[in-house]
Design a protein that fits this description.
The chain has helices spanning about 25-40, 60-75, 85-90, 105-115, 130-140, 160-175, 190-200, 230-255, 265-275, 400-405, 410-420, 430-440, 460-465, and strands at about 1-5, 5-10, 15-20, 50-55, 95-100, 120-125, 150, 180, 215-220, 285-290, 310-315, 325-330, 340-345, 365-370, 375-385, 390-400, 450. The chain is α/β, with parallel strands linked by helices and about 475 residues long. A hairpin with a 2-residue loop joins strand 1 (about 1-5) and strand 2. Helix 8 (about 230-255) packs across helix 12 and helix 9 (about 265-275) packs parallel to helix 12. The structure holds 6-O-phosphono-beta-D-glucopyranose. 6-O-phosphono-beta-D-glucopyranose binds next to loops.
């Protein structure tokens, strides 16, 4: 066992080369490179390891290193890590750069030819999705070192048809065990903790069903707008960007049956099973919104109908969850950044305190705070001290920063390490992604949007969706 700060790993990943497609892009700068730097700093990378950046932008090795140094200095501060020049100097020689076209087998073979042919390559597709097919086909045609693997960023396809085509193309060129479809929400610490919370404790699972739970809310709220991603976002919208992947993954992790063991296939089998029981989102139980000012963002159409907000009422048709409404909501430019899951429980069967006029203001609920302020809170009633029987909801809270000395690692650190180790537990399987597209299929074609003010909680109609309840985040 190796205990290094935020990670305990049995052994270092095997030697490999990482080729990052889209090396001059935003994702590489904001997420991939800072995560690699932190893993290097923690001594968790393979003994023999190098990173080759690949993109169309003309650059030499030293320009690439300069750009990556700036990226890590600007974005590497997550999880308490800060840039250190001496660490960077040790890390920088591992980086090199190849300029090339994504769909040119000749260019791609230059990158494969530039590295040790006996060492497997982990190909990381951090490009816009339109480049994935060219890269996959190109790699298939040039021959890769044995044991090579591929990581595919989201969005995985544009709809069910394109996701199926992408899966077919991947399967023509890679074995499923070598395909890593990334959804970085699965790498978030408190998302992984949902499994431990549910299946390592005896006290929660018995009440985790329709007999005790009256509703579930999943919120992925962001305060920022779309930034410089207008072109991408116009094609995507909130359903493709967040619901089809992040929200459905949260839902599956929260509501699946207990897996028979803690291995990738058992867990993914259960996730697919519950996703199959999720009823496709009904277009009549959806509110689509767009923040005021979105149409003025760069590369956004002046009459765009793309949704930057969506709220929906969903359900699961199985024995555990039949009849329990699941409310989901996500949006850009909302009042604050918060990802939470709230599980609300039925009222007590007989309210002793109602007679004395002591109505309870809200039912018991449990809140899983994915970010920020990671933790779990149970909200229940308590008697307000004093001679009268007055009741008030109080919180019983678990907070990461009070319970643990170490900050939760960045999702990308964990997922990159898992991909290097070949562990697919936190990556999505072909059938899972395809089922997720089926669930959102009927709302993809909706075009009406309601406007909302930046800094609000979205269109007011979304409140009516949960009525007579309220959104827990408000
Ligand atoms: C990405 C989306 O997958 O997740 C972005 O494309 C979104 O639009 C981001 O901002 C949110 O991730 P996080 O980790 O900041 O919650």
């Amino acid at each position: 066992m190796r205990l290094i700060s935020r990670f305990v790993i049995a052994q270092l990943p095997p030697n490999q080369t990482l080729v990052v497609f889209g090396a001059s892009g935003d994702l590489t700068a904001r997420k991939v490179m800072p995560a690699l730097y932190n893993l290097f700093k923690l001594g968790l990378l393979p003994e023999q390891f190098s990173v080759v950046g690949y993109a169309r932008t003309p650059m030499d090795d030293s320009q690439f290193r300069g750009a990556m140094r700036e990226a890590v200095a600007n974005h590497g501060g997550q999880a308490g890590q800060s840039f250190e020049e001496s660490v960077w100097q040790g890390w920088a020689p591992n980086l090199s750069y190849v300029q090339g076209d994504y769909s040119s087998p000749e260019d791609l073979s230059r990158v494969v030819g530039a590295v040790d042919p006996k060492v497997p390559i982990l190909f990381y597709c951090a490009t816009p999705p339109s480049e994935f097919p060219g890269i996959i086909t190109g790699l298939g045609s040039i021959g890769m070192p044995r044991g090579s693997r591929i990581v595919i960023e989201k969005p995985f396809g544009h709809d069910l048809k394109s996701a199926k085509e992408l899966n077919a193309l991947l399967h023509d060129n890679f074995a499923e065990k070598d395909i890593f479809r990334i959804d970085h929400y699965l790498g978030k610490e408190n998302v992984q903790n949902i499994l431990v919370f549910r299946f390592s404790n005896g006290m929660f699972e018995p009440i985790w069903n329709r007999m005790y739970v009256s509703s579930v809310q999943i919120d992925v709220a962001e305060d920022l707008g779309i930034g410089r991603r207008g072109k991408f976002y116009e094609q995507a919208g909130a359903i493709r960007d967040i619901v089809q992947n992040h929200i459905l993954q949260l839902l599956a992790t929260l509501m699946m049956e207990p897996p028979s063991s803690f291995d990738a296939e058992s867990i993914r089998d259960e996730k697919v099973k519950v996703l199959r029981a999720v009823t496709p989102i009904d277009p009549d139980a959806v509110v689509r919104g767009q923040y005021v000012g979105y149409r003025q963002e760069a590369e956004v159409a002046g009459d765009s109908q793309t949704e930057t907000f969506i709220a929906a009422r969903m359900g699961i048709e199985n024995w555990r969850w039949a009849g329990v409404p699941i409310y989901i909501r996500t949006g850009k430019r909302l009042a604050r950044r918060a990802t939470t899951i709230s599980v609300t429980f039925h009222d007590a069967p007989h309210m002793l305190f109602e007679e004395s006029g002591m109505l309870r203001p809200e039912p018991n609920h449990l809140t899983i705070r994915i970010q920020p302020d990671e933790g779990i809170t149970i909200t229940f009633d308590a008697k307000i001290p004093g001679p009268e029987m007055r009741i008030q909801p109080v919180d019983m809270s678990f907070d990461y920063d009070r319970s643990f000395d170490v900050a939760p690692p960045e999702a990308y650190e964990r997922l990159l390490l898992d991909a290097m180790q070949g562990d697919r537990t936190l990556f999505t399987r072909a059938d899972e992604v395809e089922r997720s597209w089926e669930i959102v299929a009927d709302v993809l074609t909706r075009t009406d949007v309601l406007f909302y003010e930046p800094g609000s909680w979205g269109p007011e109609d979304a409140d009516r969706l949960v009525s007579p309840q309220r959104w827990h985040l408000h």
